[in-house]
Amino acid sequence: MSTAAELGRACDVALVWGRDYLRYDFGEHPMTPIRLDVTVLLARELGVLDRLRIVEPVAATEADLRAVHSPEYLAAVRAASVDPGYLGHGLGSEDNPVFPGMYDAAALIAGGSQLAALQVWNGQAEHAVNIAGGLHHAMRESAAGFCVLNDVVLAIRALLDAGAQRVAYVDIDVHHGDGVQAAFYSDPRVLTVSVHQDPRTLYPGTGLASETGAGPGQGTSVNLPLPPGTSDDGWLRAFNAVVPGVVSAFKPDILVTQCGCDTHHEDPLADLTLTIDGQRRAYEQLHQLAHQVAGGKWLALGGGGYGALRCVPRTWTHLLAEAAGRPIPVSTEIPQSWTDDLRRRGIEAKLPTRMGEGREPQPHAWMPGGESWLDRAISATRDSSYPLFGLDPDDPRD
Ligand SMILES: [Zn+2]
Ligand SMILES: [Zn+2]
User: What CATH code is carried by the domain that includes residue 104?
Assistant: First the structure.
């Protein structure tokens, strides 16, 4: 099936975005809000924002958030917002330092993802994007991995409350989507699929192929852990060998994706080696999948990505352009106005000059019996998960 772009039709996209997102700021920390700021700037300079409808986020209420987090934890986040010495529930750690206004900043991002989800579900937009969202590590009782409130779980709960029967979640962040998996581990209405670096080599240490869900949710957690060093072609081979198969078989009403870009070869926190070009291809695949299996209903969230100047702005600008059905060629030059703006801010780092890295991903199709770590990883996931969907792990057409 063709993408909307190939059909010559633009997609109708809501971008939930407000400057107050930038208040989610841990200070000296990899999760700097600069990455979002310069992304929106690049998208604007390339004319991508003109193709989207921008919707202001609204903070999630305490009542909304109780669908995701315990009252004790929400009280802890409030306390941490006014007490710089707060320690507890994962807050005040090196990963999740506390800062003034933390509760409001996190609630705004969570509300943004909830709003984006409902824009799509209610038909106000075909696709919606919240690049500040995707905070997939936050747990019911604790902050984790730079994530204070789990906007993904809130968005999916909002979809279920609004009448969705089946929600498929695909997480392509380099880290396992543990908080989302945990929230829905025994819920048959939500399929969580996570493609990530092998947890034996990376935070958070979960996400083995053997984690497939529990009770009535047996089969609805799918994990595809990849060897360190996996690059564009290998990543896309693995994705194609698992994700479309299980998502199609699940027959979702809507596709929710976490589009973390810390799979990039320059990312300081992880060890996969994708290029911008490969990441762009991944977004194209997710977009196609939404049209193929979910009637075009697609909620795209951000996530990790710590190449704040060289990776995140390019990759998520590609995400926005792809969602709008007007992808940007990777050969496109970065506008001088963007570079000048960053220089005026005192940023001296080497900045990219083009929207891609000169690669043309050419993944070959997966075949059973491969002996590499990557092929064994693909087989392990198919062996664990495919039978639970009535699919044949050894049939490459499945
Ligand atoms: Zn579309
Ligand atoms: Zn991550």
Answer: 3.40.800.20
Active-site choice (127, 137, 196, 291): 137
The yes-or-no verdict on residue 6 having pLDDT over 60 is: no
Q: What is the model's pLDDT at position 383?
A: 98
Whether 2 is covered by a domain: the verdict is no
In a domain, 41, yes or no: yes
* Residue 80 forms part of a structural domain: yes
Q: Is the per-residue pLDDT at 2 higher than 60?
A: no
For the question of residue 196 being annotated catalytic, the response is: no
Report the number of distinct structural domains present in the chain: 1
Residue 1 in domain: no
- 8 A C-beta contact, residue 333 and residue 309: no
Distance 352 CA to ligand 1 centre (A): 28
Domain that holds residue 168: 13-389
Q: Which ligand is nearest to the CA of 288?
A: 1
Assess whether pLDDT exceeds 70 at residue 1: no
pLDDT more than 90, % of the chain:
97
| Residue 130 and residue 112 in contact, taking contact as beta carbons nearer than 8 Å | yes
Model confidence at 9, in pLDDT bands (50, 70, 90)? low
Q: Kindly report the average pLDDT of the chain as a whole number.
A: 97
